[in-house]
Amino acid sequence: SLWHSPELLSDIQDGYSVSGHLLVCFSSGYFIHDSLDIIFNHQSRSSWEYLVHHAMAISAFVSLIITGRFLVAAILLLLVEVSNIFLTVRMLLKMSNVPSPALYEANKYINLVMYFAFRLAPQAYLTWYFLRYVELQGQGAFLTTNLLLLDAMILMYFSRLLRSDFFPSLRKGSAGRDVDGEKFLID
């Protein structure tokens, strides 16, 4: 959507494209499906963070779909999916106990760069934009609150990633488990 319509970036609040609208609609459907899958497969307790994230995304995206405003913000937030590729590769490498640590090490650094480029940077830019330019009433207040909560979640996930891959001595407990026995979401 951004590739075909780069002019969208000049109007985060009211920019519109059919492909962007369809992307947000499709992504909303994905979040709804994934939430139902988590619930119906009795994974709610271990995946509650995903459910909170999905509920926030669904509510924000539905408000965007209905009003037609802030579509570009949603498209920018969906850039996060690029970094998910490397998080998923990381998880698969950990689960498969690949005998070559070089592959994991390479992905570890690529994952860190992608996390900055496609998670932290767009999120920081949108938070700055919303706090500076968007009215803090109605939909603007709702979306700003969602952004701030997502900021907290993304930073929490980032700290877990750093602890796990770059500072394992700082991890709580042992074997990737928190003090209360819950497995790190990012592990």
Your description of this structure?
The chain is mainly α. It has one domain. Helices cover 68% and strands 0% of the residues. The protein is built from 6 helices and no strands. The protein has helices spanning 18-40, 48-67, 71-77, 80-96, 101-133, 138-165. Helix 1 (18-40) packs antiparallel against helix 2 and helix 4 (80-96) packs antiparallel against helix 5 (101-133). The longest helix has 33 residues, at 101-133. 19% of the residues are buried. The model is unreliable at 174-187 (pLDDT under 50). It is found in: Membrane. It comes from Scopus umbretta.
What's the quick description here?
The protein is mainly alpha-helical and 187 residues long. It has one domain (18-162). It has helices spanning 18-40, 48-67, 71-77, 80-96, 101-133, 138-165.
Which range best describes the helical content: under 10%, 10-25%, 25-40%, 40-55%, 55-70% or over 70%? Answer: 55-70%
Counting H and I runs of at least 4 residues, what is the number of helices? 6
- Class from secondary-structure proportions: mainly alpha
Shape: globular
The residue ranges in which pLDDT falls below 50 over 5 or more consecutive positions are 174-187
Question: Tell me about the biggest sheet?
Answer: none
Number of domains: 1
Average per-residue pLDDT, rounded, comes to 88
Percent strand equals under 5%
How many strands in all? 0
**First and last CA, distance:** 32 Å
Query: What Rg, in angstroms, do the CA atoms define?
Result: 18 Å
Order of helices and strands: HHHHHH
Organism: Scopus umbretta (Hammerkop)
Transmembrane segments: 72-93, 113-131, 143-162
Domain TLC: 1-170
Protein name: TLCD1 protein
